[in-house]
Amino acid sequence: MHHTSTGERILRGVLISLALIFFLFPIFWILLMSFQTNAQILRIPPSIVFTPTLDNYVSLITGELKTASGVLKLAFMQNLLNSLILSVASVALSLVLAVPAAYAFARYKFRFSEDIAFTLLSFKFAPPLLVLLPLTIYFQQIGLANTYVGLIWVYQLITLPLILWIVRGYFEDISPDIEHAYRIAGHSWLRSFLKISVPLAMPGIAAAALLSFIFAWNNFVFALVLASADKQPVTVGALAFVTASGIQYGQIAAAVVISIAPTLALALFAQRYLVEGLSLGAVKG
Amino acid sequence: MYEKERDLIAALARRQIGRRDFLRRSAKLGLSTALMSGLMGQSLTHALAADSGIDWKKHQGTSLKLLLNKHPYADAMIADLDAFKQLTGMDVTYDVFPEDVYFDKVTAALSSGSSEYDALMTGAYQTWTYGPAGWIVDLKEYINDSSKTAGDWDWDDVLPNLRASTSWSGVPGEALGGDNAKQWCLPWAFELNSISYNKRAFDEMKIDPPTNLDDLMDKAAQITKSDKNMYGIGVRGSRSWATIHPGFLSGYVNFGAQDFTVEDGVLKAAMNSDAAKAFTGQWVKMIQESGPKNWSTYTWYQVGNDLGAGASGMIFDADILGYFQNNGDTKEKGNIGFHAFAANPDAKQPTPNVWIWSLAMSNFSGNKDATWYFLQWATSKQHDLFGAVKMDMVNPVRQSVWDDEDFKKRMEQNTGYLEQFTASAPGSKIYFTPQPLFFDVTTAWAAMLQQMVAKEVPVDEGLDQLVASINDQMQQAGLQ
């Protein structure tokens, strides 16, 4: 049995601490900023000693920012809700479409299967602005401009290829013999897919769903071009605190804290799937 | 509403009482400040309806949609919007987008021919693209049509240089505001460039605001070397058109330098003239000696933040940038002074280049006449006064507002602001030569400034390279 020396343990502890500080300090600093006024944030030199205020969170949640010239309306909570609607619905739709498709690409060889799969992947390579202007015109003509449905459809460009390609790798890793055995017992293809293949690939599906959720959450340009202000996600909404009369650093920090919360919660919940899923899908047997 | 309040509004609308008297009597009636502001807006609108000579209800029931930038000017308009709805019976909705992405949204909306928006906020420079492309409407026909334009709207009350700066024929190199110029937008509020400085630091060091570029360089160096823990002069430096248009261009043209010359109708880049080289050399030296450490990343925000936080002694930038720092939630609140600035000691007056937030009408609007009613109201004396006195709609574009006693009283709380405006206004206009590659040219200009400040290229050589590269671009675009 290998024993680590005290020196090794201390060194490991120091290195882990340094890594944690390096990665977590910006988040910690943003958290501190979210409880400060602009004047406190901008003082020179900066200090971690301050009288905390909840004003930034109150402004965001109530949607009212008190300034020297009056009360200004903020739409941040609406932006947050939009992000949730767009990301959750896009990922859900992609899962419904991409998981069976991934299974088909993994299990069956049919004409043009690789070409189709690659075409779907190529959507990830295309610069969004290349397709957005023509899409704007089409969306206006068919009445999809400025609708959640239209945006969720366009978000498939982000989420669908990602889920399809990640999950396909998982299905390929699962031995078809298990499914065959189940089928021999008299079960249908669909039942075999739902009861055997999907549960076995669940870590991969969870990992793919989480990753695509993060990508969808961070998207900026689709809603900006295709929708009105009332459909904008947090990525656009957070910029509203940067105005000609100054940058509201405290509110930006509070907005960051609030907007990373759903992703963080989801990541923590799916953490075990994520690590297992990412490592399993990476190597083909 | 109660009778007393209604009578009070009517009295103000009939001009039987002044605004100050109105506010005093409102307070006696126990009305809150917010309600008083609203009543004042309504009363001003009543006055507009009474004197206009047009039927403001003509488009009653029409719905308009605006595309706005998140800005104090838009906030002022939104705060007063009920007055317009009451006046016209129209409904107005709006989309507000952050400034960082605003012009991307405008470009996407206009280039796709979207009829979603009827009117939009724009800068004058942007109209050099939008206008010739046919995306926005030439407003001259509306301005000159007495059946659609209120008699008391008084276009001539808008500062003449601003009217000229927002109109252009579309011919590259042709002067703004010429006879064939089209009025692409209406000036809404604007900023000119002058010195905003830290009064406390200047008082403690016993120095006055600088009067010319040499003096500015000396005083900036003095501040940097002092024990004030601040650098001398804040100016913008990012690789963007926005680095060129404020202090830099204002000083540059004060020495007689130009961006382009027009020879036989052909545009030639002129950033390497003797005057341009001499000024640029001094500017670069000033930044190297007394500018911020990360100058090449500096935008509007950093320049303003440093002044507000007491990290810089002064800025040569938009006067309203200093105003916002002096009136916002900043460490140096109330401690910022303002001073007009002519970089050239031999110049007759300051020559600040201006940025004008304006309102334009989308050519794809299905409600153009109704939109014109909105544009008139939003640029009217009444709304301009409301925005300037009650909100942060500074600088107002109308002379009548600058002459208004309430506005003056408000601005007097900003040391030297009115004086710098009075000295700067006559020479304030857009000094760029209008041409469609404006953003490419100014971005290349800023990039070259960065190289010169970083000592990667000597000033004279850098400007020769810049001119060659811009002439090449102009040629490729068929402009030479």
Question: What this model shows, in words?
Answer:
The complex is a heterodimer of chains A (285) and B (480). Chain A has helices spanning 6-33, 38-41, 55-62, 76-107, 113-122, 128-142, 148-173, 176-184, 189-200, 202-218, 221-226, 234-237, 249-269, 271-282; strands at 64-67, 70-73, 242-243, 246-247. With 285 residues, chain A is mainly α. Chain A has 2 domains: 6-73; 76-282, MetI-like fold. In chain A, the strands form 2 sheets. In chain A, strands 1-2 form a two-stranded antiparallel sheet. In chain A, strands 3-4 form a two-stranded antiparallel sheet. In chain A, a hairpin with a 2-residue loop joins strand 1 and strand 2. Chain A is flat and about 70 Å long. In chain A, 35% of the residues are buried. With 480 residues, chain B is an alpha/beta fold. Chain B folds into 3 domains: 3-47; 54-189 and 355-417, D-Maltodextrin-Binding Protein, domain 2 (3-Layer(aba) Sandwich), CATH 3.40.190.10; 192-353 and 430-476, D-Maltodextrin-Binding Protein, domain 2 (3-Layer(aba) Sandwich), CATH 3.40.190.10. Helix content of chain B is 48%, strand content 14%. Chain B has 22 helices and 12 strands. In chain B, the strands form 3 sheets. In chain B, strands 1, 2, 3, 6, 7, 10, 11 and 12 form an 8-stranded mixed beta sheet that branches. In chain B, helix 4 links the parallel strand 1 (63-69) and strand 2 (91-97). In chain B, helix 3 packs antiparallel against helix 17. Chain B is globular. The chains are: A mainly alpha (285), B alpha/beta (480). At the A-B interface, strand 2, helix 6, strand 3 and strand 4 of A face helix 4, strand 2, helix 5, helix 14 and helix 15 of B. Chain B: This is Extracellular solute-binding protein. Chain B: InterPro entries: Bact_solute-bd_prot1, SBP, TAT_signal. Chain B: Pfam families: SBP_bac_1. Chain B: Belongs to the bacterial solute-binding protein 1 family. Chain B: It is found in: Periplasm. Chain A: The chain crosses the membrane at residues 12-32, 84-106, 118-139, 151-171, 192-217, 249-270.
